[in-house]
Amino acid sequence: MGKLKSFVVTFDNNKDVYQAGEIVSGKLIADVTEGIKARELGDRDGENPTLPAGYYEFPFRHQLGTGLPSSFEGSRVGYVRYSVKGIIDRPWKLDLTTYYIITVLDMLDLNQEPRATMPSGSQNSKTLCCLCCTSGPIELQAQTDRGGYCPGERIVVKGSVENNSNTRITKTTAKIVQMVTSTGFPPTDGSVPSDTLSSTVEGPGCSARLSENIELVLPIPALPPSGLRYCNVIDIKYVVLVTAHFQGPHRNLEVELPIIIGSVPLKTLYSGHPNPAYAPATAPPLLPPPTYVEAEAGVDIVDNIVNRDKYTPSQLYYAPKYMYYDWSQHPQQ
């Protein structure tokens, strides 16, 4: 880095995840090995146009506004990204800039979503054609145990498949799919499905002329909340995709079960009170304490930001972190 041994952004208490309204505070650290001509460093005006050699710490403090969308990294349609930048303003030369991306979370409370307590169900049917013959109908029905979940919880999918054809259904599967719609420029043509967001869970198949009940359990990874509230160019929806797979060249039979991903779990789910009006004001002890877990989708800072914009990285890789409820030490009912 030449005259700079280091130039980095650090945060108080090593905190890099914030909620709307919180205060972001830390230091911009510059370790200068040789004087640098500089009109300004960050928000600090200097009367001396040269920043002498030495070790400098410039504290910063900023309160986030309210109504901020959650951080999001989309592989196809864009991102919502918050960063802290430190700048050494050099006369007649390129500025020296360091860059650190933080996570900002919008807390979507499932207790404020009426559909969160209601199961999500759907059914679909089809017939198979082989030459001039048409099979009897094949029906797939599935339903989730409720409509709203938080990362770390699990989705229980129950249903049935009725196979009135002569073709065997080899297996049934379920997975979580994120549907992203962009209204920016250029806009996407409808919703764009991302990669599968959970491991695909397999269930039983069904022989010809028989029926079979299915029950599949899906763990939920770290995900941004549904809707990406307060963002007017990106919308996020989630579905559980349940599929019956056929033997041979036939197209599979699918049903989509819309769900809501939130940040604050349903209180009544763990309190034992069937009526939300009598739910306790705080979450019961059965609920594990939330942690922050990185999402799978991230960005390589060097390849995607540093090399493009000539920044000095304060981090090499970034992935947003989301509220996560770890049930590994707390058996889930």
UniProtKB/TrEMBL annotation:
Tell me which GO cellular component terms the UniProt record holds.
cytoplasm
The annotated region (Disordered) lies at: 185-204
Question: In what ranges is there compositional bias, type Polar residues?
Answer: 185-201
The segment(s) forming the Arrestin C-terminal-like domain are: 134-266
User: Please, which domain of life does this record's source organism belong to?
Assistant: Eukaryota
Which InterPro entries does this UniProt record tie to the protein? Arrestin-like_C (IPR014752), Arrestin-like_N (IPR011021), Arrestin_C-like (IPR011022), Arrestin_domain-protein (IPR050357), Ig_E-set (IPR014756)
One GO term (biological process): protein transport
Similarity annotation = Belongs to the arrestin family.
Please name the PANTHER family in this protein's record. Answer: ARRESTIN DOMAIN CONTAINING PROTEIN, ARRESTIN DOMAIN-CONTAINING PROTEIN 1
Q: What is this protein called?
A: Arrestin domain-containing protein 3-like isoform X2
Upper lineage: Eukaryota, Metazoa, Chordata, Cephalochordata, Leptocardii
- The protein's gene is named LOC109465851
